[in-house]
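Record pair follows.
FIRST:
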Amino acid sequence: MDYQKAVEAKNLLSGQLLASQHKIIRAFGLESVLETSHNLMQPPAIAGIGIGRDGLDDYHMRILLQKPLSAEEVKALMQVLEVEETDLRLVATDRIRALNGPIQTRQRPLPYGISIGHNQVSAGTLGGVVYDEGKPFWLSNNHVFANGNEATPGDAIWQPGSRDGGTAKDQVAKLARFVPIDFSGSNEVDAALAEPLDNSLISTTFPPSNPALPAITGITVPTYGMEVVKYGRTTGFTKGNIVSLTTDLPVSFGHKQAYFIDQLEIESENGSSFSQPGDSGSLILQAGTGLVVGLLFAGDGNLTFANPIAQVLKALNVTFG
């Protein structure tokens, strides 16, 4: 189908089926497609919706499923969206959660991609250095640096994170600012900044890898099929491909859930995981370049999701220098 039709179909499900699932169940009669529990930790069968591309002008709906749909349920979706079965890609996934959990050693100065976190957070990943009018800050996720809105500017940031043995003596920065996560509305980014205690702690390189990751030179616009790489606290260097530029999905943050729109969706290139818990905050680069496309923040062990980097920089009012 063409792109405009795909956008209309995605918006129909995203804006109503996911964000107001009980209303849409009554309106469309899709009780069998969704779990009706009011417990956010028991999310619906449909876990996310994105747009994939088959050819230059041929697009399809990516329906992320936490449990299989019957033939009748698939038919119901087709009728609601007014699409053909060939326009759907049903992708099995697990609960999508913010990637924060158990490289993982003390490093001075701090290269990109290593264990770091707010003193009350287990462990996440240091993304990279960004600048606000020439002043350097470290970039990662809100849920890594600001503990999912629970932190206060000035709070201690440890390297390594507490899951990796970090303690008060390992403080390397203080929380500078963050973009609040709206747990009742929609979000575009999960992002925060930390101010290094001393500029001597700053490094602008990644840990050694094969192939080596180049120095960051700027950002670029993500595209369908783009080969991307990342270096993170848990899985180190991995490769993948962007399969959707506009995925909308609910994401679990412990006992809370937030809704994100227009996120990058990435599949591993070789069947192994592109990311695992603890990789949150990793910069995602276009392979073979120093150009950043996204900030990793969530996944299910198979699929990975990232904020488009342009939105992150805009929200925090910073640049890569």
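SECOND:
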Amino acid sequence: MSLKTEYENQQKYRKWSLIVDKLPIKSDHVVAELGCGTGNFAEVLSKKIKEVIAIDLNQNLLEILQNKKILNITILQKDISNLNYIPKQVDGIFSSFAIAYFPNKMEQILKNWFDKLKNGGWVAIIEIDDLLRGHTPLSKETLNKLEIFEDKTRNNGIYDFRAGRKISLILKDLGMEILLDEDLEDSELTDSGILSDEIYTMWENRLNRLSFDKFFQKNEIESIKADFLSLFKSAKHINQTKVKFIIAKKS
């Protein structure tokens, strides 16, 4: 299954309309969505505001949004870490599941985003927290390996599996006022107990994409995956993963 197909399958579990309703938007706003992927959120948001600047580095994902030909969405294939290519300051910035890919640069990148906001502008970020070790019960051996994997992945600048808990503090340090800090319900990412066959397959694909092979032998990887996936067919499965949703205002 291609990454584009996987991303499209995930969209049914994202409650974009409810999320848009919580944003401090006005009809004349120009909002940048950073890491827009296939553009499902951008499409919903575009019906409420003047313009969406939808930005992602992956052209394969952007093609889905481009084919919709929505007039008030400007699509850019760019790096989201620095927004100098946007000529003017914007009213708002939205980003979901993107900042965790910059574990060693998170503070600087959020500062870059802050600088692109107008005074009184806002930033809204959705990010995962404890994606892997939030699931229990796992064997001690698997938990130890997951901790090693998370530490090495973060230290090597690949991903921060606990990015969600850090965002509010960084935004406060930038002098922003936190308007909202809540945990979202998401049946793909936060449900406990026995999960559907579709979500099981989505998780199987996700685990296959993770860079376990950088740090473990093949037999170790298969053991981690088997232990992890077995949880999703168990009534004893407890999921403490959080999907953090933070909105902050620039004074």
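COMMENT: The mean pLDDT is 95.
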